[in-house]
Each structure stands twice: as structure tokens, then as C-alpha cells.
Amino acid sequence: MTADEAFEAFDRGDWTEAERLYRARLAEASGTDAEQSPMHMLAFTLAMKGEFEEAIGLYGELLRRAGEQDAAEDIAVAMHQLGMTCRLAGDSRKARAWFEQELEFRKDRLPDDQTGFSANSYEFGELDLLEGESEKALAHFRLALRQGKAAGDDICTGCAWRGIGKASRVMHHDPTTAWELALDAFRRAGDKAGEAEIRRMIGK
User: What's one Pfam family here (predicted)?
Assistant: First the structure.
């Protein structure tokens, strides 16, 4: 088994196979450093499968380890993923608390990480949509777009345009242009899963 096999399964949405492969990688890992990547991806896979309790447990362990090492980027990522998992689980209150904590941490420790800020702003937009606040969502997605462009990150840019399209649709505006721009960004990034999601949205 290679790392690519596991990620390819994840990338095509084969959560059962991705889980199997990442569990195997985690079992084979020697030491906490080697465990970090498969643990993160296993947690991500479980979150996508809807197995939120175990995903939250794994991300909590990653956050604990990162805190012990004072690894700022890893701390921020773990906070972000905990927020995302809570959002997917439908717990917007806990999700918002994690994203607020992540935002303050980034301001203090990672002030130049525009990719991280873009991902954080995007998640606030998703929460706003869940809570029926479409105008707030649109503002957060536009902020994510500016930050993603500043970072030169096509995936962040694609996600932001996708969010703008989703908010526009809720507000009864035409989302087509936003989704086309999202598709272009995901294509540049080589993100096939992102492309496929947008194609489903626009019926291509």
C-alpha cells in the first residue's frame, strides 16, 4: 500500500476503502510524528462518513499533541478540523466556537497565513448558511475569496466561489458565474473532487 492509494480512495469519495487504508497506515506508523498524517486523514475520512464521534476524538488527540509541541500550524489545523467536523455533525454552536478560537489563534500566531484565514472565513460562511444568514454568509465567502487570492491558493479560491454561488442561490440570484469561476479554480488546482461537485451543481 502507498500513501497515494489511500489518498486516491479519499479523493474519489470511497470512504470505506480510504478508512481501511488509513487505519492500516496508522497501525504501521512508528512514533507520533509518523502517526500524524494517517491520523489526520483517518479523522477526515470518518468525518466524511458521518462517524463524527471518533473523528472528533482523533482530532482532539492531534490538537493535544500539537499543543505539547507548540506547533502553531498543526494547532490551527486541528482546531479547524474540529470545527468542520462539528459543522458536518450539525452542531453549529460548537463549530462556531472552534472557528472563533482558530481565528484568534491565527491572528496571534499565524498572522500571514492567508490560506488558513481563507479556509476559516469559508467555514464561517457555511455556518451562516446553516443558520439562515445568507447575507452574512455571502460576506464571509467574499472575504474568503479575497484571502484565497492573496494567498494564490486555487483551492481556497474555488471553495470561496462555490460558497458565493451557494449563497447567491439561497438569495434567489443567479449562481452560474460563481460556479463557473469555482470550476476554473478547481481545474487549475487539479482538484477533481471539487470539479465534480461543481459540475453536479450546474448540471454538467
Answer: TPR_12
